[in-house]
Amino acid sequence: MTVALALASAGFGASSASASAAPVYYLDSTVVDDSGAGTSPATAWKTLAKASAANLPAGAKLLLRRGGTWTGRLAVTESGTAAAPIVIDTYGTGARPVVKGDGEACVDLAGNYLEVYNLQVGVDGDAGRCSWAGVKVRGDDNVVERNYITGAAAGVFIEEGTKYTAVTANEFVNNNHMSVNTPVPTNDDSGAFAILVHGDDSNIGWNTMKGSIADSHDYVLDGAAVEIFYGSRNRVHHNISIDNDTFTELGTYSDDADGVTTGNVFEYNAIYGAKGRGGLVTRGPVHEDGKPEPNGPVFATAFNNNSVYLTNAVAEGVVCDAGCTNRHLSMSQNIVYAAKKSAYSESGFTDNHRNVFYGGQYQMPHSPDSKYADPRFDPANPLRLRAGSPAIGLGTTKFNDLDLAGVAVGKDGAIEAGAYEY
């Protein structure tokens, strides 16, 4: 099965049916002004301000002309319904329409049941970037799909308290801006996220994320493909992460409205690139010296069937510190290669099954059903397996129907460790 068919079978690639009588509005940056009715290409509106002020009923569509460029914020405060979402998409031919240049969010989804497709959000550089978020999600049941998102501190930011966001089949490139980067060593630098998740129950799948890495006064370098703070029960699956500083770091603060960060799942992700310094970073409550972990504890993180290949000399594959136990992490059927350290936890963590580890130091309690050997990745086909790989047939649990290439898991009667079937 192709990835396109996999997306279609999962419900991606088409918006929900909307009411037939709902209006369609058009936006064209080349027209003279906003004096048109906006209900046809010939009477299109010109500005984001006009579109943002429109009263969009459930089922309405707002279409941006391809080849157009807008500076500012597209804000949607109205809500659709499950049967009739409000859809933001494109019309015409040519390059994706570009929305850029807002200091808070170039696309602001404040309502519920909103769907955004096929835009370019931001530009790769200081002039015209979305300085904080490319897309900020504040409402529930919203979809961000098949967009090109670049240049932001957070390509997509899902606010705390927000639920059921789908971020699917997008391309994130060089979301490498630091929103905070102070020279005083106060441990407050922040930014360079493809996706920053403070919300719950998100579906983050089938995206490509590249270049979320930036200089930092506090950390030398910082950034992540998917950063989760506060958020619970988010599912991060079937993504390709290339040259991001870290694939994912999880944490929480004492003011988390839910009182706990728990149940985040990572499956069938491919994580590689010479710049990457980390795969998964999570934590328990208290360090070995007795000091409380200020960003912990994070509970019930599951890391299954991911492939990690990090050749950077300081790269660490999986790290769970600050009193990490089986309450905080489980990991099964992964392949983890990292040049400095393949895995680290303290002695209380043992939920480590049928993984393949290789590279630098292994500092995690030994697992009798895991392998400690060269995974035999194919150098011509990143993170695919060659004959003789210890990952072939190592798995016993079918965590998903499809691997990262859209191939049926267990199709030959065997389940592999890692993101790709052999």
Mean pLDDT: 92
Largest pleated sheet: 21 strands, parallel
**N- to C-terminal separation?**
14 Å
Q: Give the DSSP E fraction (strand runs of 2 or more residues).
A: 35-45%
Shape: globular
According to DSSP, the number of beta strands is 39
Number of helices: 2
Contiguous uncertain segments of 5+ residues: 1-5, 14-19
- Over all CA atoms, what is the radius of gyration? 22 Å
Instruction: Tell me the helix content.
Output: under 10%
* Helix-and-strand structural type: mainly beta
Topology:
Blueprint: H1 3-9, E1 24-27, H2 48-53, E2 61-65, E3 69-71, E4 74-76, E5 86-91, E6 98-100, E7 105-109, E8 114-117, E9 120-121, E10 133-137, E11 143-145, E12 148-150, E13 154-158, E14 166-168, E15 171-173, E16 178-180, E17 190-191, E18 193-197, E19 203-205, E20 208-210, E21 214-216, E22 220-222, E23 224-229, E24 235-237, E25 240-242, E26 246-251, E27 261-262, E28 265-267, E29 270-272, E30 278-283, E31 298-299, E32 301-304, E33 307-310, E34 316-321, E35 329-332, E36 335-345, E37 352-353, E38 356-363, E39 371-372
Parallel strand pairs: 1-2, 2-5, 3-6, 4-7, 5-8, 6-9, 7-10, 8-11, 9-12, 10-13, 11-14, 12-15, 13-18, 14-19, 15-20, 18-23, 19-24, 20-25, 23-26, 24-28, 25-29, 26-30, 27-31, 28-32, 29-33, 30-34, 32-35, 33-36, 34-36, 35-37, 36-38, 38-39
Antiparallel strand pairs: 16-17, 21-22
Describe the structure.
With 422 residues, this protein is mainly β. It has two helices and 39 strands. It has a 21-stranded parallel beta sheet that branches. Strands 1-2-5-8-11-14-19-24-28-32-35-37 form a twelve-stranded parallel beta sheet, with no helix packed on it. The two termini are 14 Å apart. Mean pLDDT is 92; it is low at 1-5 and 14-19.
